[in-house]
């Protein structure tokens, strides 16, 4: 894996940018579709993990839109966009933690079968997104951020399916809350990684531009 801020002072090759944009559009359409499915499905059955995942799908959709328009920018501005995305992911993770706390006191066990079906749909969508974005996982902070989004979502949806089995077997809300907490942790972890790399790339590019301007 290449180190951030060391080998990314130039824009990605045009052929790579074109392929990355196609991959982003595929991921965007999949994420928007799953957002609407999970936001209504999760609210209807009272699943904290599905509701959290719906917010995450929305955040990823916004991130993909931003990434599409950031492709033609310089490394400094791509890193700036990635910084915004990292902060956004962190914010969503905090929202999930708040929802977990609320559900601990007021929530009821969700419908396990519906939860599992929607979780499977989300898993399929995220696996496809992760596969089309896999080739760009070692790119700059902007490219790495969209790969991390899809990777974390695929892991999250697999956990949702396991939680659905737990809810079905125990008739307890705890499996749903545990998965939601795990998703929040993954979001915070990815947000930290993206934020740190984007800050390094911004500093590196700013230093290079300053040297070239002297």
TrEMBL record:
Membrane topology: Multi-pass membrane protein
Keyword terms, alphabetized: Ion transport, Membrane, Transmembrane, Transmembrane helix, Transport, Zinc, Zinc transport
GO CC entries: plasma membrane
GO MF annotation: an example: zinc ion transmembrane transporter activity
Main subcellular location of this protein, as a coarse class: membrane
Domain (Cation efflux protein transmembrane) ranges: 24-200
Database matches in Pfam families: Cation_efflux
Protein name from the UniProt record: Putative Cation efflux system protein
Residues that span the membrane, as ranges: 22-41, 61-79, 86-106, 112-134, 154-171, 177-195
Annotated InterPro entries: Cation_efflux_TM (IPR058533), Cation_efflux_TMD_sf (IPR027469), CDF/SLC30A (IPR050681)
Keyword rRNA-binding listed: no
Subcellular compartments: Membrane
